[in-house]
Specification:
The protein is an all-alpha fold and 95 residues long. Helix content is 81%, strand content 0%. The protein contains 2 helices and no strands. Helix 1 runs antiparallel to helix 2. It starts with 11 loop residues before the first helix and ends with a helix.
């Protein structure tokens, strides 16, 4: 897995929006785990520590896949931004 970091200049409002999204994601994850466990309990399955760990591991794998996809999209977007910024500088220099 390749991790990339980006240097972003964000306003305070943008940071708060990102934080809100991050915490909402955490709540969504916990709700999803809770629904999964409740569904298993309704079916009469025995719920133990192994079951909970399995559900959490499945969610982690899915989240990692989604994180990798968004990382790839962001890196393509960042490369596009760098290219357009260079083009803009060249056009401004010619004027």
């Amino acid at each position: 897995m390749t991790e990339k970091s980006f240097n972003l200049k964000l306003t305070k409002k943008e940071v708060l929006v990102l934080d809100h999204g991050r915490f909402k994601g955490m709540v969504d994850l916990l709700n999803s785990v809770e629904k999964s466990i409740n569904a298993k309990m309704e079916k009469g399955e025995k719920i133990d520590q192994t079951t909970l760990i399995g559900v959490l591991a499945a969610h982690k794998i899915q989240a990692s896949k989604m994180l990798n996809k968004t990382s790839q999209f962001l890196s393509k977007f960042a490369e596009g931004e760098e290219t357009s910024a260079k083009t803009t500088k060249k056009v401004a220099a010619k004027k």
